[in-house]
Amino acid sequence: MTCGENSAQLDENLDWPTHGHYEHAHLYSSREEVHTFASLPQLLTRRFDYVVIGAGPIGAALAYKLALDHPLRTIMLVEKNWNEPDRIVGELMQPSGCQALEELGLGNVFSGIDAVPAHGYFISYRGKQLYVPYMNRPSGKDGRYKGVSFHHGRLVMNLRAACKAMKNIVCLEAGVTELLGEHDKAGELLYVKGVKVGPAKSSGNGNDPEHDVFPQLTFVCDGITSQFRKELNPTKIDLISHFCGFVLEHEPISSGEHFSGPAGAIQSVATPESSSTNPLPMPHNGHVFLDGVGPLLLYQMSERETRVLTDIPGGELPSEASGQLRRVLGESLSKAVPKHVYPGLNRLLMDTLAQSKRIRCIGCKFIPATSNRIDGAVWIGDSLNVRHPLTGGGMTVGLWDVVILTKLLKENKGSMKQIKAQWYWERRPRALVVNTLSVALHALFAAETKELGLLREACFVYLARGSHYTMHPSGFLSGLLPNPLLLIYHFFSVALLAVELRISGKSTAYQGGNLLLRVLSAFYTLFIAAGVILPFLWKELQP
Ligand SMILES: Cc1cc2nc3c(=O)[nH]c(=O)nc-3n(C[C@H](O)[C@H](O)[C@H](O)COP(=O)(O)OP(=O)(O)OC[C@H]3O[C@@H](n4cnc5c(N)ncnc54)[C@H](O)[C@@H]3O)c2cc1C
């Protein structure tokens, strides 16, 4: 089925993608199909064509598609923990990520997990609000594309259930401890010929001997905290910020309500006074509040739960033990969601923060992809490439990497080196747009200087203009418009608008100074804008 046909089919299905029957639901928590480490010697009497390390969203989707495309090949999917993951990552799938899942034959993977459709973004800044909807479908039917938000662990378990259902995937609970291969004198890995597998930490007794597995090809999908990334990309990565999260609980919204609106400015959206009803100004949408220490994100994980993620810029996290972290979060939340504008939401946030026993925090990084030059293995997903989570684009980039790579492997034209080179080329536009946008927007939204504050204001004013000023950025964010030149055009248009706001004295974020000073600071802001985007573009463009 082609992409166009998929879209047409989705148009007709207004409930898509969160409702309907999931054919692998019965395997969700089944352990029968998961082999233990003790059974590995027995399993190794057969040959494995592919080993996939890690059954996160990317490893599981990849193993499934490989199994579909190559029914005569056998895949070992090694995952150190097959229980439902409990993490504060990957809870919103952008529309383009949903398209990638469709392409992989996994379009109904959001069914049965109480997932919620997402229609776009509500943005709040200095008491003003605007709506950035997702793009219209080209057919014009059924309006706009949709994203989905959900419990990360539930999506992963549905993806894993699809793998369990495949006869030619062997699911193994174990940990890969080493990539086997040749190193040069400088210690650089030259090629991978296999993997060393040990017991999963939770099940091993520490004395179990490890086993070597020698497939044709190894896929490294060990994710955000990859232990094998350093073999491909030894660069030390600094943290940009931390995301700290907790969950709001509330009543579901009543069915049949519609939560999208026109692109651009919204005059005002009433928020419920009662803390038990859904407190979001626009349920079934992502929410970004820009007036805290860093951007504050809110999105539903189910009809009854909303994730709160507060960004704390910089590599250092305030101490939780001393109470400093809660103080910073409290101040940030009350600035971002002022009581006089959002009374119900403000109360619920502050009460929930006070009652939360544990605040969960995670570091946010940017790791540009490097070419997969090491023979015998492919790094894919977060082990290859990481962007700031502000724009929720990680799984979208990773899933499209799976779509493109598996298509090229199936076509099997040329050597593996040529396939990898082609893959790297084809994946680049979408990865570049989503990754660069994530860090550029974070710099603007965290606005740690007056110039960045001016750029943030210009960005808000720009997005509120409607038409393509709103919809192209929405296309970059959702992964639906993977056009790097257009991204650069809009970014510098925002920078020029910042110049105009400053020189004309209309900026509320950066005030004061005579005309000469305003002109000088406006052009300095242009220089800062270039410094925000160009280094990341340059890193993304490396061969
Ligand atoms: C705070 C935060 C919020 C985010 N929010 C979003 C979002 O809303 N939307 C979005 O699209 N993206 C989001 N992301 C990014 C997204 O979470 C990642 O892009 C995605 O999880 C990458 O999937 P993966 O399969 O590559 O890696 P992971 O999800 O990290 O999975 C790796 C898997 O490998 C297993 N594993 C690791 N090492 C081994 C080993 N040695 N042996 C066996 N198994 C192993 C792990 O147990 C795990 O199951 C967010 C990231 C962060 C940090």
TrEMBL record:
<keyword id="KW-0560">Oxidoreductase</keyword>
<feature type="domain" description="Squalene epoxidase">
    <location>
        <begin position="216"/>
        <end position="258"/>
    </location>
</feature>
<dbReference type="GO" id="GO:0004506">
    <property type="term" value="F:squalene monooxygenase activity"/>
</dbReference>
<feature type="transmembrane region" description="Helical">
    <location>
        <begin position="486"/>
        <end position="503"/>
    </location>
</feature>
<protein>
    <recommendedName>
        <fullName>Squalene monooxygenase</fullName>
        <ecNumber>1.14.14.17</ecNumber>
    </recommendedName>
</protein>
<feature type="domain" description="Squalene epoxidase">
    <location>
        <begin position="275"/>
        <end position="506"/>
    </location>
</feature>
<keyword id="KW-1133">Transmembrane helix</keyword>
<dbReference type="Pfam" id="PF08491">
    <property type="entry name" value="SE"/>
</dbReference>
<keyword id="KW-0812">Transmembrane</keyword>
<dbReference type="GO" id="GO:0050660">
    <property type="term" value="F:flavin adenine dinucleotide binding"/>
</dbReference>
<feature type="transmembrane region" description="Helical">
    <location>
        <begin position="515"/>
        <end position="538"/>
    </location>
</feature>
<comment type="similarity">
    <text>Belongs to the squalene monooxygenase family.</text>
</comment>
<dbReference type="InterPro" id="IPR040125">
    <property type="entry name" value="Squalene_monox"/>
</dbReference>
<keyword id="KW-0472">Membrane</keyword>
<dbReference type="InterPro" id="IPR036188">
    <property type="entry name" value="FAD/NAD-bd_sf"/>
</dbReference>
<dbReference type="GO" id="GO:0005789">
    <property type="term" value="C:endoplasmic reticulum membrane"/>
</dbReference>
<dbReference type="GO" id="GO:0006696">
    <property type="term" value="P:ergosterol biosynthetic process"/>
</dbReference>
<dbReference type="InterPro" id="IPR013698">
    <property type="entry name" value="Squalene_epoxidase"/>
</dbReference>
<comment type="function">
    <text>Catalyzes the stereospecific oxidation of squalene to (S)-2,3-epoxysqualene, and is considered to be a rate-limiting enzyme in steroid biosynthesis.</text>
</comment>
<keyword id="KW-0274">FAD</keyword>
<keyword id="KW-0256">Endoplasmic reticulum</keyword>
<keyword id="KW-0285">Flavoprotein</keyword>
